[in-house]
Amino acid sequence: MRTITEIIVHCTATRADWIAGYPTGSKVAEVKAWHLARGFSDIGYHFLIDRDGTVAQGRPLELVGAHVAGHNTGTIGISLFGGFGSTEVDDFFDNFTAEQDLAARVLIADLRARFPAIKLVTGHNQYAAKACPGFQVSEWLGETAVVNAPGRVTVRRGSRGDDVRVLQEALALSGHAPGPADGIFGGKTEAAVKAFQMGQGLTADGIVGPVTWGALL
Predict the structure, then answer these.
(1) Which pLDDT belongs to residue 151?
(2) Residues 6 or more apart whose Cβ sits within 8 Å of residue 75
(3) What single-letter DSSP state applies at residue 149?
(4) How confident is the model at residue 144 (pLDDT cuts 50, 70, 90)?
């Protein structure tokens, strides 16, 4: 089995009612046909999650996927059916269902348990100028399931409160300069977060979600 260190989340960019009523297997077969037409050897994703929460196997896990150029080695690709017309800053529930939310969280937790080397759970839009998967994965996970730092919520510029104060103190201890630990996420704190993220090889977006919290604490 190959070493897996990251999960990358995608969407199929299909309408919510796309071939509604068809079994999940038929939808997966259609996506596979798209990928074969592009010259892929198989469907690019390892898992797909239907609107009702059904999880389907795509490409075998032991095989490298074809879902993010330059980031297929060591990763698992999960795709959610839906996301047509979405943007990278939409809320998860703007384009996907509660059943998909639960199924994705359970699948991610299961994969992390099976492959302890997984340290990152990211979105396609963190590696390419795309909306896919149609939300910010770190924010989605951070709202109710901060995996790497229990009890910490996702914070960004404009956030206030104790979590921001803890962040500022942790940044100062790591050798960065977020300004005073006043619990206000301003420009200096954002710059310090981005510098820390760059130093850790993370996406330098200035958003402190589960991955950044896990690296800091």
Answers:
(1) 55
(2) 4, 5, 6, 7, 8, 65, 67, 68
(3) S
(4) very low
Pairing of strands 120-123, 6-11: parallel
How far is it, in rounded angstroms, from Cα 179 to Cα 176? 9
User: Is 84 buried (19+), middle (13-18) or exposed (0-12) by CB count in 10 A?
Assistant: middle
Name the phi and psi angles at 7, rounded to 5: -115, 130
Among 138, 6, 14, residue whose Cα is nearest residue 68: 6
User: Across residues 138-148, what is the average pLDDT?
Assistant: 59
- Distance CA(6)–CA(12), nearest Å, equals 20
The phi and psi torsions of 124 (rounded to 5 degrees) equal -55, -35
Q: Give CA angle at 51 (47, 52), nearest 5°.
A: 100
Active-site annotation, residues: 10, 45, 124, 130, 132
CA distance 55 to 105: 11
Note the pTM of the prediction, 2 decimals: 0.67
The encoded tokens of residue 173 equal 């201890």
Give the Cα separation of 66 and 59 in Å (integer). Answer: 9
By DSSP bridging, strand 55-57 and strand 75-80 are unpaired
Alpha-carbon distance of 176 to 189, in angstroms, equals 9
Cα pseudo-dihedral 66, 69, 72, 77, rounded to 10: -60
Task: Confirm if 64 and 53 have CB atoms less than 8 A apart.
Answer: no
